[in-house]
Phenylacetate-CoA oxygenase subunit PaaC
Amino acid sequence: MDQKIEYLLRQGDNALILSQQLSKLCGKGPALEEDMALTNVALDLLGQTRMWLTYAGELEGRGRTEDQLAFLRDAHEMRCCLMVEQPNGNYADTMVRQFFFDTWHYFLMQGLAKSVDARIAEIAEKSIKEITYHLRRSGDLIVRLGDGTPESHAKTQAAVNELWMYSGEMFLYDAIDIAMVEQGVAPAAEGLRAAFIEHVSEIFAEATLTMPDPAAWMQRGGKTGRHSEHLGYILAEMQFLQRSYPGAEW
């Protein structure tokens, strides 16, 4: 049971931290349409966070709510991948990070929709429609940025080169991931990785971007609580109100 709780926290924390990152861009998008789109994606991810963390709290049996799991855990207790805590940077950085995450997220949810755990399958089914839109949108923007002006191409390629090292952690399975696969809860890493590489390759070819070596060394640690320095700043902002005024409600 503890392994399943950890797995649920990973899903919830990935969506939570990326939602927080995107919410910082509200009012700062390069165009009104993009500003609204980024905010809507953040809201979608926050809704998914609530489902994952609520289920984790129920299985844990310690009475912790989704809010308590989101706002009262320290950085070393968070289980998000390193990818989602990387800075927003310029718009190319934001969208490359989003595209890598969306691609993995889409294929993972397809697998989780077939989970033997009915609650997990239900959450995945509810999320997949939103994630399909996220992936279509981020892929389209990668093409537009990569195959756009010389400046947009250069910035997008730089973002790809910088963020690629974080893309592998999502497929580096540890004992918890493996246990979920063996129990029929989650899909195997090999199929997800193959689908990820295939889709990214197709989009990059259309975007005239050079794809880094899929076998390159990858960063890892976020899923087990070893994070970059960025997460502490994200949590300080996100958790300030609840930490300062415990139990505060609207």
User: Anything to note?
Assistant: Residues 32-60 form the longest helix (29 residues).
